[in-house]
Design goal:
With 110 residues, the chain is an all-alpha fold. It is 78% helix and 0% strand. The chain has one domain.
Length: 110
């Protein structure tokens, strides 16, 4: 497995665990709300407003980022040539190094 795939898998598993823990705690929260006499209508509207605002912000962010990519693509690529530093970083990001290959560049000290 490549390091990026491992990171993506770990990220997925940790997010799943977080949602499981939220689900476990949600049952207790709902029970305490029922014991307290239910949800106050003003609090219900506030919760609904927050959920709608977060949802709208998420859609605005996703579609805004997509629109920005379209605009940047429409404007065209920059005509500047890439310097040696940018080329080195780009090359290192594009290339997958195995452990055996890394020992060539970073020899083990014995």
């Amino acid at each position: 497995m490549h390091p990026l795939e491992t990171f993506e898998l770990m990220s997925f598993v940790l997010e799943a665990l977080v949602f499981i823990l939220i689900g476990f705690s949600l049952r207790g929260v709902v029970e305490r709300i029922d014991e307290a006499g239910g949800l106050d209508p003003a609090m219900g509207w506030a919760v609904l407003g927050v959920v709608l605002a977060v949802t709208a912000a998420r859609f605005a962010w996703v579609f805004g980022a997509d629109a920005m990519m379209v605009v940047l693509h429409w404007l065209g690529p920059r005509r500047e040539t890439m310097g040696w530093r940018q080329a080195t970083v780009l090359n290192s990001l594009e290339r997958d190094l195995d452990v055996e290959e890394m020992t060539i560049f970073f020899p083990r000290s014995e």
